[in-house]
Design goal:
This protein is an alpha/beta fold and 209 residues long. It contains eight helices and seven strands; from the N terminus they run H-E-H-E-H-E-H-E-E-H-E-H-E-H-H.
Length: 209
């Protein structure tokens, strides 16, 4: 939704839904953890009645443990927090789950995969950022991130876990098959979809890849 036309939120939600999207991904930025500001729980609460799609909320904020209850109340169905943020990761994940949401954990391109290893049995989704977080429209960082996606898949299989592997950043018809080949099964695409004249064709092209 970061790449959508915010003056036409309901229409953009319907466009994503009728074009074949599965989830809506909402990037929450606080201007501190990342050098940009986006929107907060009120925006999520506005989106919620506009669509039947699953709401995937990504907290790029410094204190996710303090703020996640507001996003639960706003209608989030999955809440992803960063391993790099200032919080007790296990406690935050447990709190999100206890509040009735699915929980995810994200890592940035410069963060070693080993940082998330202790938490993989506590999550529903692992988000591997394929750009440095904060701004849309960046180029896909294949070399830095695809080994992490492959490691996430290998570790999931080795330990018999069931988390989704999500990628976010620079995903389009060219890069989607690269990500899925390495093990991603959830693709976040903003600019390449909301900027497309035919979103349904763009989504179809990614799926065919």
């Amino acid at each position: 939704m970061l790449a959508a036309d915010w003056s036409r939120v309901a229409e953009e939600c319907r466009r994503a839904e009728t074009s074949g999207g599965d989830w809506l991904h909402l990037d929450i930025m606080d201007g501190h953890f990342v050098d940009n500001l986006s929107f907060g729980p009120q925006f999520v609460s506005i989106v919620r009645p506009c669509t039947q799609l699953f709401l995937d909320v990504h907290l790029m904020i410094t204190n996710p443990d303090h703020f996640f209850p507001r996003f639960v109340k706003a209608g989030a169905e999955n809440i992803t927090v960063h391993v790099e943020a200032d919080h007790d990761v296990s406690r935050t994940l447990a709190g999100i789950r206890e509040a009735g949401c699915r929980c995810g954990l994200a890592l940035n391109p410069d963060t070693a995969f080993e940082e998330v290893l202790p938490y993989l049995d506590q999550i529903d989704l692992l988000l591997v950022m394929t750009v440095r977080p904060g701004f849309g429209g960046q180029a896909f960082m294949e070399e830095e991130t695809m080994p992490k996606v492959a490691s996430a898949r290998a570790e999931r299989e080795r330990r018999g876990l069931g988390y989704h592997i999500e990628v976010d950043g620079g995903i389009d018809q060219r890069t989607a098959p690269i990500a899925t080949r390495h093990g991603a099964n959830v693709l976040v695409a903003g600019t390449s979809l909301f900027g497309a004249s035919d979103m349904a064709a763009a989504i179809g092209g990614m799926r065919k890849g």
